[in-house]
UniProtKB/TrEMBL annotation:
The UniProt record lists the keyword Glycoprotein: no
Keyword Oxidoreductase among UniProt keywords: yes
SUPFAM superfamilies referenced in this protein's UniProt entry, alphabetically: Acyl-CoA dehydrogenase C-terminal domain-like
Keywords: FAD, Flavoprotein, Oxidoreductase
MF (Gene Ontology): acyl-CoA dehydrogenase activity
Limits of the Acyl-CoA dehydrogenase/oxidase C-terminal domain: 4-127
A UniProt-annotated Pfam family: Acyl-CoA_dh_1
InterPro entries in the cross-refs: AcylCo_DH-like_C (IPR036250), AcylCo_DH/oxidase_C (IPR009075)
Protein name: Acyl-CoA dehydrogenase
Phylogenetic lineage: Bacteria, Bacillati, Chloroflexota, Candidatus Thermofontia, Candidatus Thermofonsia Clade 3
Organism: Candidatus Thermofonsia Clade 3 bacterium
């Protein structure tokens, strides 16, 4: 009924928020890797950092399609909407959690400080994961 439609819409919106937050955290991590210098070079030149950023991006990009399909099902395939909304919310909030943790790790100590905004995204990821179940 109407209550389930509202829950489905909420899950899809949380999934969208998680995707946007994940994308922003990845952008912050890439920008930081391109500017932070260690041992005479930017940390983005190190293979381990490149792999970490690539893994974050490879995990995030397919998630957009997952979210889009959930939104499509909500509008056009009602009998699949509940399942796809729940899966999109669960999947994207899980990615959001991992991307914010990886971005924080990449930033090192500054990622935990109040002077840098990454902690806000980290807290938002925790909220999104628990909201709407």
């Amino acid at each position: 009924g109407a209550l389930q439609r509202a829950i489905d819409a909420g899950c899809i919106l949380i999934a969208a928020d998680a995707f946007g937050g994940s994308r922003r955290c990845l952008e912050m991590a890439v920008n930081y890797a391109q500017t932070r210098e260690q041992f005479g070079q930017v940390i983005g030149a190190f293979q381990a950092v490149k792999h970490q950023l690539a893994n974050m991006a490879c995990e995030l990009e397919p998630a957009l399609s997952f979210w889009w399909y959930a939104a499509h099902a909500y509008d056009h395939i009602r009998h699949q909407a509940e399942r796809h909304a729940a899966m999109a919310k669960a999947y994207l909030t899980d990615i959001y959690d991992r991307v914010t943790r990886d971005a924080t790790e990449l930033h090192g100590g500054i990622g935990f400080t109040w002077e840098f905004d990454l902690h806000l995204w980290f807290r938002r990821a925790i909220f999104d994961r628990g909201f709407w179940g």
